[in-house]
Amino acid sequence: MVPKDYRYTKEHEWVRVEGDTGTVGITDYAQHELGDVVFVELPGIGATLERGKTLGTVESVKAVSEIYSPVAGKVMAINETLATAPEKLNQDPYGAAWLVKVKLADSKAVSELMDAAAYQAYISEKEKEHSA
After folding, report:
1. pTM of the complete model beyond 0.85
2. DSSP result, 6-65
């Protein structure tokens, strides 16, 4: 279950671009690896994100994991729902559980991220490593 119109990172974040805005979240693979999510920490509106740098954290029953921004830009919106219902990340990581909306500093940089086919191949390799 990897949406085809999104772009992906090796750290299991995704971005969906519409015009000059990128919606960012974590992948189904990431939420599955984390287990039950109990808390999400996100940046404030107006925060500047750097590609590859931490944008927040996700706390699960297993661990606290950093979320890395797949894009650079300014945070225009955060998903307020996750403050009171962090479990949405487990239920709908590609839809209702988006994390932030970002005004992109460079929309062309998104093309450097993995497309759905490349990400699918990447997680298949990861799963082979786990089972070996």
Report:
1. yes
2. -EE-TTSEEEEEETTEEEEEE-HHHHHHH-SEEEEE-PPTTPEE-TTSEEEEEEESS-EE
